Amino acid sequence: MGMDLDKALDAVGPRLRELRKERKATLADLAAETGISVSTLSRLESGARRPTLELLLPLAKAHGVTLDELVDAPPTGDPRIHLRPVVRHGMVHLPLTRRPGGIQAYKLIIPAGERSEPEPQVHEGYEWMYVLNGRLRVVLGEHDFVMKPGEAAEFDTRTPHWFGRAGDESVEFLSLFGSQGERAHLRAKPKRKG
Question: Which CB contacts under 8 angstroms, 24+ apart, belong to 180-183?
Answer without folding.
Answer: 180/124, 180/125, 180/126, 180/156, 181/126, 182/102, 182/103, 182/126, 183/126
